From TrEMBL:
Catalytic activity from the UniProt record: N-[(R)-4-phosphopantothenoyl]-L-cysteine + H(+) = (R)-4'-phosphopantetheine + CO2; (R)-4'-phosphopantothenate + L-cysteine + CTP = N-[(R)-4-phosphopantothenoyl]-L-cysteine + CMP + diphosphate + H(+)
Organism lineage string: Bacteria, Pseudomonadati, Pseudomonadota, Gammaproteobacteria, Pseudomonadales
Binding residues for CTP: 102, 112, 131-134, 149, 163, 167
Assigned EC number: 4.1.1.36, 6.3.2.5
Keyword Ligase: yes
Name recorded for this polypeptide: Coenzyme A biosynthesis bifunctional protein CoaBC
Gene: coaBC
Length: 228
């Protein structure tokens, strides 16, 4: 496998990857987010760069160092992440590893929200839907070859197939996040790839960097040949 990477499996390709969580402001000091570490997306960016691709990595707030030869663009919210991904087009491949917040507060307050000192009641926060970054790029005039992730706790493969078809993807990577030692915040992962023809391929538990190399290798094999 190391030799294939040295040969530049993705030489001449532009690979766009998003990674990490997004943060949706409630007020200047509070936000809604999730536990995504960004590790899988950063490992994919590293592996794609090793395979010779030009890599653009659009990252939410994470605590990770940028892999060598990767162009990183930092963003905070889902809407910023969508804008940065669209700006990075055209790309040959888009890998959507980010854990995009599905909802954001309907409006972010300009000043810190204060409790009502005269009452001990709760509060209601109105949320609105965020744009779907992956579905937007999959329907874009400059559509890249689109790879999604499906992090699920149950009925993993059937939900993953639904997302593949609903978002019109080329490949979906299903991830069972109910197991404590893999997925979201851990160093290991185990995934099942499902392509457009519903062909399935399971990659057993391994480090995220080993899995990333395998995934990049498989993606490279799917891409249409480049014009001479
Ligand atoms: N995704 C996205 N933009 C969103 C939500 C999800 O680009 N607003 C992408 C993710 O990056 C991932 C894929 O869509 O590649 C599936 O994300 P997931 O959260 O599993 O699916 P959802 O479509 O959000 O459905 P749900 O959370 O209800 O399962
Ligand atoms: Ca979601």
């Amino acid at each position: 496998a190391a030799e294939c990477f040295a040969l530049g499996l993705l030489a001449g390709r532009h690979v766009l990857i998003n990674a990490g969580p997004t943060r949706e402001a409630i007020d200047p000091v509070r936000y809604i987010s999730n536990y995504s570490s960004g590790k899988m997306g950063f490992a994919l960016a590293e592996a794609a760069a090793e395979a010779g691709a030009r890599v653009t990595l659009v990252a939410g707030p994470v605590n990770l160092t940028t892999p060598p030869r990767v162009e990183r663009i930092d963003v905070v919210s889902a809407r910023d992440m969508l804008a940065a991904c669209e700006m990075a087009l055209p790309a040959d491949v888009f890998i959507a590893s980010a854990a995009v917040a599905d909802y954001r507060p309907a409006e972010a307050a300009d000043a810190k929200l204060k409790k009502d000192p005269g009452s001990d009641s709760g509060m209601q926060l109105e949320l609105v839907r965020n744009p779907d970054i992956l579905a937007t790029l999959a329907a874009h005039a400059q559509r890249p070859w689109c790879v999604g992730f499906a992090a699920e706790t149950h009925d993993v493969l059937s939900y993953a197939r639904d997302k593949l078809q609903r978002k019109n993807l080329d490949l979906i990577i299903a991830n069972d996040v109910s197991q404590p030692d893999i997925g979201f915040n851990s160093d290991d992962n185990s995934v099942t790839l499902i392509d457009r023809s519903l062909h399935q391929q399971h990659l057993p538990q391994a480090s995220k960097s080993k899995l990333a190399r395998e995934i990049i290798h498989l993606i490279a094999g799917y891409l249409p040949a480049q014009p001479e």
